Amino acid sequence: MLSLWVAFITGLTTGGLSCMAVQGGLLASSLASQIEKEVGDQEFKSKRKKLLRKKSPQIALPIVLFLFAKLVAYTLMGALLGALGSVLQLTPAMRAILQFAIAIFMIGNALRMLNVHPIFRFFTFEPPASLTRFIRRKAKNNTSLFTPLLLGVLTVLIPCGITQTMMAAAIATGSPLLGAALMFAFTLGTSPVFFILSYFATKLGTLLEKQLVRVVAVVLLVLGLLSVDTGLNLLGSPISITRVLQRNNEATASQTLLPPSQTGSEGEGVINLNVVNSGYEPSLLHAPADTAITLNLITNNTQSCSRAFVIPELNLNKLLPTTGVEVLNIPPQPAGKVIGFTCSMGMYTGEIIFDL
Amino acid sequence: MKSVTIDVKDMHCINCAMKLQVLEDDLPGVITVDASYRNQCMTVIYDDSLVNLNQILGAVKDLGYSPELTQ
Question: What ipTM was reported for this prediction?
Answer without folding.
Answer: 0.79
